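#lab-general

N.A. 3:47 PM
ok so I finally got the sequence cleaned up, no stray characters, all 461 residues accounted for. can someone with queue access submit it? mine expired

B.Y. 3:52 PM
send it over

N.A. 3:53 PM
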Amino acid sequence: MKKRRRPAKPKHCGSILAALLFTLLCGALCLTLLTHSIGHQRIMAIRRGHAAALLGLEDHLGLEIHHIFDTLNLADLNSFDDPVQELFSKDTFPDRTSGPARLRHDFRIFRSTTGGLERIKAFARIFATQIRGPYTMEAEIQGTFLAGSIPTQIIPFLLKAEVTAGISSRDWLHSQGVQVASTVVPLVKPEDFNLDLKRLTQRSLDLGDLELTWSEIRRKLGLPALEAPPPDGIYLVRDPECVHAILVQGDLDQLEFSSYPAYQCIRLTRGNTTLHMEYEPKGTIIDCWIPDPLSTTVFAECIVINGNCRSVATCRDQDENAKAFHPDSHILLLASGRVTVTSSLEREGLGIRRIPAPGISIVCGKSGALNAGGEGIQLSGPDGIALDASLITTGVLSNGDGAVQVNGSICAGGLDNTGEIKFTFVPGGQPLLQNLTVHNLRMIQGIQVLRIEEVRQDDNE
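B.Y. 4:20 PM
back already:
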């Protein structure tokens, strides 16, 4: 009996199934891509909205920060009983609505007292929140206030002058050709400020609390104790362990500084006589003009002139690009008379980057027996000089037609400027300047923005 043959499958059946499977896979892939594309567009739209919202809130924070800076720049601290408490308060900066943002303020104040100096740090946190939206931005500002007897090396800018009513000290200085960094609040006031030079001069000449008389100074020099200045010349105030100061009696024609990798060099010229000293900052004296060996003696980096100094400059005999000060140098030049700066005075950098910082503090004023010469500091260098220096004088700070960059501090009894002065505050590092203070002073040492960032809504509750 013959078996029945099964009908043969069509040859194209497998191809139809493969085509159907491929079509299904393509459809699923297209659907996935379409869903991903729609989701991606939604995500991008949310991100764009988020970025736009934060940018708008940041603009409102920026305007409020400018408002706070302007208020502090215009504030007369002496007109308040407690200036910090009254300025950093919601009475001065109330919570308010600004367009689509709600502004809220939070203030904190921390006080500390050392001797006769009160230092106050005030913080203002500003929150900008969407009125109709979930986003919040925060900014934080810090202001540092000083009151009492303030060391000059932490005073950024103090000037005796009459400021036009209704404008800030910063705007008045700008009209006088002085540009001050935005983080500094300059203090310009018509009253004399009480600059106490006596203690600084006593410490510079190693007199302790002895009176500033010629008899005491001459004893320090090993001369007969007479109430008359010693003969004009250059002396060392020293003991077996330390050269406390170079003392110049009479006018000095030229004072030059130069920096070398391992040491600092000072050159003094008076008439036909030129003397020099080489020493390691924070270390020993390498070479000096006197015959006595000084290899175990430290130099306190102090130069005292009872008279005028006609030129303070960088010595560039061997290198046109030489810098004046070693990175570790903190020199004090204390003169009873007028000091004229005739070139750049820059501090050597550490490594390949130069960070401006005062290599010298120039202090001019009369105290006790040291009362010869004129008054003030004269900037007479070429156009475009840079001074890594603190400039402190009871007289007038003068500048000619040139542009000067000052990296340090300025404290002056007057200003005569026909050029341009650009000022950046950098605190000095001369330990002796702790003895030079201005009494009964209130001032803002600086203000700065610490941060601007987004915060979560629950962090702002």
